[in-house]
Design goal:
Radius of gyration: 21 Å
Bound molecules: 2-acetamido-2-deoxy-beta-D-glucopyranose
Shape: globular
Length: 493
């Protein structure tokens, strides 16, 4: 099919380029004094996921993390064939049955999620009362259901100004806000990503390998009278998936902040990672610094600041953990929501990324309070990555101290582990809840057996850079400030 050729060419172009060399000169957008600040809630829509086994999704997260780390740190990405090999390895495991997904009702890998995708009932008796608040009792049945069913868990409406609620995608896989675009304004579900700097939604003419771009909301002149398309192309490649399209201007409203005639992208082509019906978002908003942007335009938060709608280009994240059932995730633009963190725990550290990521120096890494003695490590703080991807030697050291193990496929720890890993920034230590470290049972019917670990080894990157995603960020309040080029972290209240 012609489209698949287009995609092959597109991907070949993207993968053979070296993004670090394509980074444009930094453009700073001065902000005007204005004390206003906006917050948007994050929210669960159930879209049954019928196509992908949770263990495969995990491999996708690991792959995505690896590619991101490569891109972030200016190295060429791992060749696509390597990543595909990783996927195949995981699939092979499932199909050969060495990852135990079998039970009275399920045979082997490929039919697994179909059987379990429709209903939100506890998977097993043993799992049904696993605590979602304590530690040591294994993976929460809520997480298992969410991993199997996919979909969004809606956030409560935030009280703070300039704030959007962040819905939880599946079992804490990603965080999604609803914004309005166009005339008349339509709702779009957008993945909020501190680890990239491009903003796009699918276009009305969007195509994928599967034909159309799925059951999503699209933007174009048919549905928006204020939509203006340019002839400037853009492409963005993520850890998993890629999009290509053109720049456009239209009106964007985030948490009541009206950004008229904002320049962003409409995707005319999406890979299946974005186009599938099961993908719970219609587009993606990068909130790293626009130096990283492929579109070479200011990010929405930079535009809000330069237009004086918020006082400074600050994005602040409180992401929530499904198992807590608090659904209080949110992103605030222009400031911090002081009700979400403990004021005297706030530490502010300089950004050390050369290319526009939010990257800070880690002062210490401890396991159960014991210092690992790792020094000179940095963390790229990325809401768009599910896991923590660390250099292999560091990962192995941490796993060993945790009582976990790594094989060629992945690192695992006992699902019942109470061990605590903590990362220190500034002078503050931020402990990762043990529930976040025991991510998902290797045997879904044994939520107190071995679990895929929240830290996995990245086979690329310098041996001092960690890609630190939601496994960590669920445990801290994160605020990133473009104007001052700094990152703040605080303990959650
Ligand atoms: C897989 O799980 C089933 C049911 O939980 C159990 O009976 C079986 O022994 C397990 N197989 C392996 C290889 O662990
Ligand atoms: C998967 O389901 C299909 C159709 O129901 C069936 O033909 C096939 O044998 C199943 N495969 C496995 C591994 O159970
Ligand atoms: C699960 O926990 C609830 C509340 O603690 C309790 O009422 C219920 O009996 C428990 N169910 C099982 C199967 O243990
Ligand atoms: C974790 O803590 C719980 C309760 O505090 C305890 O029952 C359990 O045995 C502990 N697990 C491990 C692996 O130490
Ligand atoms: C939101 O902004 C309005 C107007 O500036 C102010 O009156 C109100 O107190 C703010 N609410 C919160 C929760 O900060
Ligand atoms: C598409 O999504 C809408 C709203 O999310 C839902 O009502 C509808 O059933 C979906 N259609 C398909 C074919 O999945
Ligand atoms: C933009 O992409 C389209 C489709 O790939 C191509 O036909 C067109 O020439 C490109 N335009 C520019 C200005 O590069
Ligand atoms: C929108 O902005 C673009 C440049 O970003 C400009 O060319 C265009 O005239 C603007 N349109 C309106 C209606 O302001
Ligand atoms: C941990 O070890 C590192 C390197 O030896 C040291 O710089 C740091 O101060 C130690 N931190 C703590 C909390 O002991
Ligand atoms: C850490 O503590 C030292 C001594 O108390 C202080 O001088 C320094 O400013 C603190 N650093 C940060 C980032 O808070
Ligand atoms: C993108 C950016 O501004 N990066 C900066 C991060 O901080 C370091 C250290 O202050 C600078 O050297 C980078 O230019």
């Amino acid at each position: 099919m012609q489209l698949s050729i287009v995609f092959a060419v597109l991907l070949a172009c993207i993968l053979s380029s070296t993004p670090s060399h394509a980074i444009p000169a930094r453009t700073r957008h001065q902000t005007q004094a204005n004390s206003r600040m906006v917050t948007v809630p994050l929210k669960r829509l159930y879209i049954p996921r019928t196509d992908v086994h949770p263990q495969l999704l995990l491999q996708q997260h690991i792959n995505r993390g690896n590619k991101r780390l490569a891109r972030m740190t200016g190295r060429s990405e791992p060749p696509e064939y390597e990543l595909r090999a990783e996927m195949h390895k995981r699939m092979y495991i499932l199909e050969s049955g060495s990852v135990n997904t079998s039970s009275a009702t399920t045979k082997a890998g490929s039919n697994f999620s179909r059987r379990h995708s429709r209903h939100s009932k506890p998977v097993t008796e043993a799992a049904s009362n696993a605590s979602s608040t304590g530690t040591g009792s294994g993976v929460s049945p809520l997480d298992i259901q969410a991993a199997e069913n996919g979909g969004l868990t809606a956030a409560k409406k935030p009280a703070a100004n300039n704030t959007l609620g962040l819905a939880i995608d599946a079992d804490d896989v990603g965080y999604i806000a609803t914004i309005q675009i166009g005339t008349p304004p339509k709702n779009f579900n957008i993945l909020m990503d501190s680890g990239s700097a491009d903003f796009w939604v699918g276009s009305e003419t969007c195509q994928s390998q599967q034909g159309t771009c799925g059951n999503h909301t699209f933007l174009g002149s048919k549905s928006s009278s204020s939509f203006v398309q340019s002839n400037q192309n853009f492409t963005v490649t993520y850890g998993s998936g890629a999009v290509a399209g053109v720049l456009c201007q239209d009106n964007v409203n985030m948490a009541g902040l009206q950004l008229n005639n904002h320049t962003f992208g409409v995707a005319n082509q999406e890979t299946v990672q974005f186009s599938a019906n099961t993908v719970a978002f219609d587009g993606l908003m990068g909130l790293a610094q626009s130096t990283l942007s492929n579109q070479k335009v200011p990010t929405p938060v930079e535009s809000l600041a330069s237009k004086g709608l918020i006082s400074s280009a600050i994005s602040s994240f409180k992401i929530s953990r499904l198992a807590d059932q608090l659904n209080d995730g949110q992103v605030t633009f222009g400031g911090l929501d002081s009700t979400k963190f403990v004021a005297n725990t706030l530490v502010t550290i300089p950004n050390v990324s050369k290319v526009g990521f939010w990257e800070g120096t880690i002062n210490a890494i401890t396991v159960n309070g014991q210092n690992t003695s790792m020094t000179g490590r940095t963390a790229i703080l990325d809401t768009g990555t599910t896991l923590i991807i660390a250099p292999p030697a560091d990962t192995l050291a941490v796993m060993t101290m945790l009582g976990g193990k790594c094989d060629t496929q992945q690192c695992t720890i006992p699902c019942t582990s109470n061990a605590s890993v903590a990362l220190s920034f500034g002078n503050a230590s931020f402990a990762i809840d043990p529930r976040d470290m025991a991510l998902f049972p290797v045997d879904v019917n044994n939520p107190t057996g071995d679990c895929t670990a929240g830290i996995q080894a990245g086979t690329i990157g310098t041996n001092t850079e960690w890609l630190v995603g939601d496994v960590f960020l669920k445990n801290a309040y994160l605020s990133v400030d473009t104007q001052n080029n700094q990152i703040s972290l605080a303990k959650l209240s």
